[in-house]
DNA sequence: ATGGTCTTTCCTGCTT
DNA sequence: GAAGCAGGAAAGACCA
């Protein structure tokens, strides 16, 4: 961890502090406007999201940002909705979301009725969303992830410089807003707050939907990459496609988009110098850590995903190692390859190509029955626990499929067991994989101390929770990356 | 060819 | 009753 002034600031606490032993169990969510973790969308009341007409430009979507900000909902779900681009395909996605075992409803307005020094980490995030809304700041541009693990009490101990360390752009604003919140908390009554919130809700839900410019949300780079990757026949977005980035420099599209998003540049006015800067940042980012996405995804146990990287209908990062076995790699023409930033050389070749190349080398190993062995059987480093570890680092699967309960202790939870099993099965070319089988394989890890029993302290859910043991490695770095 | 490793598959019994 | 957990047993696939 690099030395920085931030060291003087209280570090985010990841070990479950008493007040966040089970942050999602406290629910003040009203039944009328709650996003349930099982459906993602409220069954009653107006939907916050509407599908985009195919004729719509990729630059805009029909929604009400005010609604998004105000609605009581599960925070992880909220950000996941956004980061998954579900805004663009809410009514096109029929994926059934399995309920998360805990009651994970979190009230986005709860912070309003509490003193800032009582804010839990969820309240801090909700408050920051509110600040972003009130100041018309695309929340992707705020370093929300740098604050997402702080409680109100911890923020109280932070100086303005600490805020600036965490967010050089909006640190001052966040600091002053926090001070305002402290001042206001003394004379705020529950009734007035609730009354104001109800007014907001009425105003929000009765207001006509607005057209939101993707650029203003900071999503233009992402949309451009989607367009250039998935729909190469569309007019090429010059701002991205002209980046002189070579394929081998981009092991991960999430790195690209996140670095681009951190540039906070407007792609429509990208200057040559900005282009150079963006590429330099990319290279720096790629040399620093496996991916910025890892730190973001793994670091945000509350399920935050500051910028979406799930561009494909199955919700996976196009460059995800989990996807490599699940989907055939797009066969891109040289022209398309020139513009594509999503093909990773780190991942396995598609089966047909790998076997093809192996055939050429005369290295194909055959089973007893004479059939070529499955690709998964050729590969090393393809262990189940490694697969899960990597899934915990991948924003396309963490926190939607697996998520950290306590990254310091190595405690994680399987959110969507059957989906994880399908992904594992896809990785191993085994369509018959089920969670039952997967979990049996996981239980063999207890003997090797790759997994160890989860302490039954009541701190974690009783089911679908596992803990890495001394036999597992490579998961610890998430707690380092998240500070970077 | 062999033995070790890592699953995979099937199963029973138990707990939540 | 469903889902998940725990673990035995056997077998397949891979690898050195």
From TrEMBL:
Residue stretches of biased makeup (Basic residues): 363-380
Domain PNT positions: 98-185
Chain positions covered by the region annotation Disordered: 35-57, 348-380
MF term (GO), any: sequence-specific DNA binding
Residue ranges annotated for the ETS domain, each copy included: 382-469
Annotated keywords: DNA-binding, Nucleus
Localization per record: Nucleus
Alphabetical list of Pfam families matching this protein: Ets, SAM_PNT
InterPro entries linked: Ets_dom, ETS_fam, Pointed_dom, SAM/pointed_sf, WH-like_DNA-bd_sf, WH_DNA-bd_sf
Main location as per UniProt: nucleus
Protein family: Belongs to the ETS family.
Name listed for the protein in its UniProt record: Ets-domain protein
Phylogenetic lineage: Eukaryota, Metazoa, Ecdysozoa, Nematoda, Chromadorea
